[in-house]
Amino acid sequence: MKIAVFPGSFDPITSGHVDIVKRALPLFDKIIVAIGSNSQKSYLFDLDQRMDWLGEVFKGMERVEIGKFEGLTAHYCSEIGANYLLRGLRNASDFDYEKTISQLNSIVGDDLDTIFLISRPEFSHISSTIVREIIKGHGDARPFLPKEVKI
Ligand code: ADP
């Protein structure tokens, strides 16, 4: 079975994330969208809220599961038997960052490869960071969010 983990903070999940999962579905038997928690990082939305949104957004998609983990992504992948990581690339700075992480994961992880999908142009300006700024500034973030995420 080809199982991929799509790890992230999903603080909150955006339309860009959803597009990556939908486009990756033909490549894998199962995709686990998993929220990784890092004790060093603070989040705008708590873990339960972010998990609820993932559950709502992917409810109708049979081969998509949701999950959560602490610690290393590579360890989570070996625990659940996933050999692939899925990540999205929006621009060159994503690439620089992701390249290093992917190389580290291939060493730390056991037979773990990262598959990258380049974001569609209509989603490449969307990031959770921008969405959080809009929310903090009391703007309307709906154009960047799946309809299930009601903020
Ligand atoms: P992290 O905290 O690990 O960066 P994110 O939730 O911000 O987690 O992102 C998870 C993954 O989704 C990353 O690979 C990121 O590049 C990708 N991603 C985020 N926004 C988009 C987008 N608009 N289009 C394509 N990929 C995206």
Overview features:
151 residues; alpha/beta; 5-stranded parallel β-sheet; 5 helices; binds adenosine-5'-diphosphate
Low-pLDDT regions? none
In this entry the ligands are: adenosine-5'-diphosphate
Rg over CA atoms, rounded to whole Å, is 15 Å
The average pLDDT is: 97
Query: In CATH terms, what is the fold-level topology?
Result: Rossmann fold
Task: Based on the coordinates given, report the CATH architecture.
Answer: 3-Layer(aba) Sandwich
Distance linking N and C termini: 36 Å
| Number of H- or I-type helical stretches | 5
Percent of sequence in beta strands = 15-25%
* Relative helix content: 25-40%
Structural class: alpha/beta
* CATH class value: Alpha Beta
- Coarse shape: globular
Please explain how this structure is put together.
With 151 residues, the protein is an alpha/beta fold. The chain has a single domain (3-144), classed as HUPs (Rossmann fold, 3-Layer(aba) Sandwich). The protein is built from 5 helices and 5 strands; from the N terminus they run E-H-E-H-E-H-E-H-E-H. It has a 5-stranded parallel beta sheet with strand order 3-2-1-4-5, with helices on both faces. The model has no long low-confidence stretch (mean pLDDT 97). It binds adenosine-5'-diphosphate.
